[in-house]
């Protein structure tokens, strides 16, 4: 089934070339079925790239999905045109009277700042509080996961000695949990962050379940016991080349960033990195949409 996106969204052409099932708004209106309404709070600076990454995954399920993009009103992004924001994004004041079946909160390049120092922190906490009663299930990515863990569960992030940057192996603690149904015993996922959260704090919190850890023992997939909040500390949505582009960007800024671990063949930065996490990316998003959104959301919101 297709994702329903704005007719002129730039990602549309690329998705159609990749044979992702896309339906524009005009055609979707003729469908006599109940689509899922998914809100995406996109906090990443290069918004069009993140849009494409997430839409690839949301468009590979048997469910029709209506997409609404959300941006912060208290911080105006500088890496995307005002025209793009005005045409394809809403602010919280424009959607807060609505109910959504699912919400995705992306990462953001602010993890080395204290949460309260982020210019849009108050707005973000308002959105997270609102989601508890207006959204069936929320998927949080990287810094978005750290923000939810801090705001709702009192778990603080801490800065690591070096950037966690590369492709790492992960294990699943309980294969009976529907979110990880079909996952291999060992699977790969990308990470790109300077901060981490305490595994012990998560395991000791009675409201949380730790579903997956990395080969270093760091938390990766965390779920609230009521399944309303799912936190992913890495970036399963990343393309094969995303870490290479981040590595080049860091070096162009003069940052002493190490080569991404377990990424370039032979650590040759000119070699094409293999996409070793693609199948689990699709599986996680498909399981989330099916088991935690579609199967749980009411047909009609009261």
Automatic annotation (TrEMBL):
Question: Which keywords appear in this protein's UniProt record, sorted alphabetically?
Answer: Acyltransferase, Amino-acid biosynthesis, Cytoplasm, Methionine biosynthesis, Transferase
Q: Does the keyword Plastid apply?
A: no
Show the GO cellular component annotation of the record: cytoplasm
InterPro entries (UniProt xref): Class_I_gatase-like, HST_MetA, MetA_family
Q: An example of a Gene Ontology BP annotation on this entry?
A: L-methionine biosynthetic process from homoserine via O-succinyl-L-homoserine and cystathionine
Chief location category = cytoplasm
Pfam families associated with the record = HTS
- Check the record and name the Gene3D superfamilies matching this protein: 3.40.50.880
Q: Which SUPFAM superfamilies match?
A: Class I glutamine amidotransferase-like
**Under which EC number(s) is this enzyme classified?**
2.3.1.31
Q: What is this protein called?
A: Homoserine O-acetyltransferase
Source species, please?
Lentibacillus halodurans
